[in-house]
Amino acid sequence: MNSIWVPVAVVSGIFLLPLVPWGRTPVNIEKLGPQVGQRVPDFNLKDQNGKPWTLDSIMGPKGAMLVFYRSADW
Amino acid sequence: MAAISYDPPEILAEFSRRRGITFPLLSDSDSATIKAYGILNTVAEEVLSSGKDDPVVIADFNKYASVTGLNAASLVKGTPYPGTFIVDRQGRVTSRFFEEFYRERITASTIMMKLGAASAPVQATKISAGHVDITTYPSDPVVAPGNRFALAVNVMPAQHVHVYAPGAEGYRTVKLGMADQPYVRFLPLAYPPSEIYFFKPLNERVPVYQRPFTLLQEVVLEVSPQAAKVLAGRTELNLSGSLQYQACDEKECFNPVSVPLSWTLKLTPNITERIRTSR
């Protein structure tokens, strides 16, 4: 019995090994960043006219909309 | 409202000048805020380093960084997964909108409409149909390939009139049907909550709409190379559909009707010109 199973294990090991260090699960963007009910981090960033803004200063009477986009350049 | 990207201030200055943007475009040139928000697109870094042989990484790169060309990976490096957070005055997220596919993006006005924060524009189309008034308008007057926008159908039943809502058995319920056309994808429509109407003569309780309600049909204008080719020479996008409903008042029911609807939007190509010309 042993003489049959040992080679099978070795062979399957060769195929499985390379997958282990690479394996990562696909990105799930819904799980990234602050979720509904959570507080977003503050920031201090300059706008196109050099004016600095924080989360507080961007706030309107009902809150704010923060749009993250790829680039204005390309 | 603020829009955040990794572009340096001079790029944002030129971009807002060219496009007449007055709301703040914030420069997060070292991506520190993007990182603090936990939405940094790391797929490019992975492709540039150890992940270039991992099929999962490659698949993610193609999905979330669909830029082609030699320097695609270095352009994407430092960018966020594009998305929008709506926060209350305490900075707590009340809703968030993140897109699966990089080049398909929900428009800001669609988000406002979904949140019920937008009102009908002046150029809305008004139709007086039997027993209801219908007002239709698009979220955006101008759309580009890759835009996810919305068509609004506001229905106002006349006094004492109700129309049947989804779930009303034995009646023709309200239904918005859209005419298919290539490279235009209609997303499943979520009908707004209805109320229960008690019809005494039949001792019947049925879901109806008696007050004004709005159907929001979300639409994606596809961005594939084939779509781009077909849409290239066009300056208008015409969408059509019909609203079916059956109206009743306290005494009688009227014949089911189907009202044709149409929307004409301006079509603009995707802006591909870069701001940074020399460097």
Number of strands of chain B: 18
Given as residue ranges, the uncertain stretches of chain A (5+ residues, pLDDT < 50) are: 6-22
* The CATH fourth-level homologous superfamily of the largest domain in chain B: Thiol:disulfide interchange protein DsbD, N-terminal domain
Counting structural domains of chain B, the number is 2
Task: Characterize the biggest β-sheet of chain A.
Answer: 2 strands, antiparallel
Oligomeric category: heterodimer
Helical content of chain B stands at 10-25%
Structural class of chain B: alpha+beta
Low-confidence parts of chain B lasting 5 or more residues at pLDDT below 50?
A: none
Strand content of chain B: 35-45%
Following the backbone from N to C, one meets helices and strands of chain B in this order, namely EHEHHHHEEEHEEEEEEEEEEHEEE
CATH architecture assignment of the largest domain in chain B:
Sandwich
Shape of chain B: elongated
- How many helices of chain A? The count is 3
What is the residue-averaged pLDDT of chain A?
77
- Rounded to the nearest angstrom, the radius of gyration of chain B is 23 Å
Q: SSE layout and pairings?
A:
The complex is a heterodimer of chains A (74) and B (279).
Chain A: H1 2-16, H2 19-22, E1 44-46, E2 52-54, H3 55-58, E3 64-68
Antiparallel strand pairs in A: 1-2
Chain B: E1 2-5, H1 9-19, E2 25-27, H2 32-36, H3 43-48, H4 55-64, H5 72-76, E3 83-87, E4 93-98, E5 105-106, H6 108-114, E6 125-129, E7 132-138, E8 142-143, E9 147-157, E10 162-164, E11 175-178, E12 184-186, E13 195-199, E14 204-209, E15 213-221, H7 225-231, E16 236-245, E17 247-248, E18 257-267
Parallel strand pairs in B: 1-2, 5-9, 8-18
Antiparallel strand pairs in B: 3-4, 6-7, 7-9, 9-15, 10-14, 10-17, 11-16, 12-15, 13-14, 16-18
